[in-house]
Amino acid sequence: MDILKFLTAGSVDDGKSTLIGRLLYDSDSILLDQLEALQASNRKNDDGTIDLAILTDGLKAEREQGITIDVAYKYFQTDKRKFIIADTPGHIQYTRNMVTGASNANLAIILVDARKGVIEQTIRHSFLVSLLGIQQVVLAINKMDMVDYSEETYNKIVADYKVLAGKVGLKNVHYLPVSALKGDNIVNNSTNMPWYSGESLLHFLETVELAVDTSTEHARFPVQWVVRPQTDELHDYRGYAGRVSSGSFKVNDKVTVLPSGFTSTISKIEVFENEPEEATAGMSITMHLADEIDISRGDILVNSNYQPLVSQLIEADLCWMDTRALDTTHTYFIQHNSKVTRCKIQETLYKVNINTLEKESAEDFKLNDIGRIIIKTADPIAFDPYEENKANGGAIIIDSRTNVTVGAVMFRNVAD
Predict the structure, then answer these.
(1) In angstroms, rounded to a whole number, what is the distance separating the alpha carbons of residues 400 and 164?
(2) Tens of pLDDT, residues 310-326
(3) pLDDT, tens digit, for every residue of 278-311?
(4) Cα–chain-centroid distance for residue 206?
(5) Tens-place pLDDT, residues 337-356
(6) Is there a contact between 118 and 355 (Cβ–Cβ < 8 Å)?
(7) What domains are defined for the chain?
(8) Omega cis (within 30) before 177
(9) Which residues, listed in sequence order, are joined to residue 395 by a DSSP beta bridge?
(10) Is pLDDT of 16 > 90?
(11) How far is 241 from 289, CA to CA, in rounded Å?
C-alpha cells in the first residue's frame, strides 16, 4: 500500500483544519480516546455541532485563537491508501512553516472561501506550491453552503483560478466544490450540488496517481556511511550505505562518483540479507563496486550516462527562515543530502512579492522572504535543477554560529 503525502493551504478561516477534521471524522479514522475528547470539548460551531478543527489545532495558542500556527501532521489510512497530512498555516508570517510542510508533499489542497473567491493569499499559496514543485493540486472551493451551493459562484472561481494557475505554472489542478462544515463532497458525494458530477475529495485522494521516477536518468545515491568492518570474516568487505534518493540502479550499471569523477560498476546490492538485482528510489541499501575507490560520506553515486551538474557557484531560489536577516558577509553551512560544506551568499538577485508575484529589489533578506540568489560553496556540489529532480535539487542553509536551519534552497542552474 503506497503513501500519499499532502498538505492543506488557505487563508485565515478558510476551513483547512475543519476540512481535515471532517475527512478524519467521516472516514472513521479517529481513535476512540480522540473521539471522546472531541465530544467532551466545549468548542462548538454556531449550529451546536462539534468543532472538528480541534483535531489538528494542537497548540494552545491555536485553540485559543482558532487559527493554525504550526504545521500539524496527521496520519490515517483507508483500504486503498495510507495518508500523511500536513496542515499548514495560512498567515504570511508563517510562510516558512508552509514551506516546511510542503517540502515532502506529493499533492496540495488549496482552499478558497466561496464567498471571497481568489484573493491575495490564494496567489501566495499557489506560488509556493509551484515553487516547491508539487505536481498535483486540488482547489477545494469551501463553504459552498454559505453561497446556497451556487454553480455560478463555483464556475466563476474556477475560471479565475485557471488564469492564476497559468501564471504560476500549475498544470494538474482538480476543482472540487465542498463544505467542510457540513461534509459535502469530503468523504461522500453531496446531494446539495446535483450539478457537480465529479468525485468526492477522499475518492480523489485514494485514486490519484503518484508519479514515481524509476528511470536511470535520475539515478542518485548519496553515501551516508562507508561500511568497513575489518574483521577476520569480512576482511575485504567494502560497502557504501545510504538511501536511493531518486531513479534506480541495477547490478552491472556503470556509475560515477561525484565530485571526484571516478567511475566503476555495481558488483552487488544488499538489502539486509537479500541481494536484489535492482534498487529504486526510497530503498535503503548497501552498494558494492567492482573497483576500490576513495569514497566518503557526502559523495554521491550517479548513473554515468546521466550525470548531474557539478559546481561551486550555483543560482538558486531561497526561502529565508530566520529572524536574523541574511548576512552576505557571513559564512554559512549548506547541507545537500549527506554533504555538508561551507558557503556564502555571493549575491541576492531579487525578492519575489508573493502576493503580487512581482520581482523586487533584494537589498536585504528577512524572515519569510523568498527570492533568487547566487551561492558560492567551499566544495563542489553535484545537483540537479529542482524542477527536474526535487530529491537532488534542494538543500538547507545552516547558521554556523548557532547550528540553526535558516534557509531552504532550491537549485536552478550553474551561475554564470
Answers:
(1) 39
(2) 999 999 999 998 999 99
(3) 999 999 999 999 999 999 999 999 999 999 999 9
(4) 19
(5) 999 999 999 999 999 998 88
(6) no
(7) 2-207 (3.40.50.300), 216-303 (2.40.30.10), 309-414 (2.40.30.10)
(8) no
(9) 409
(10) no
(11) 12
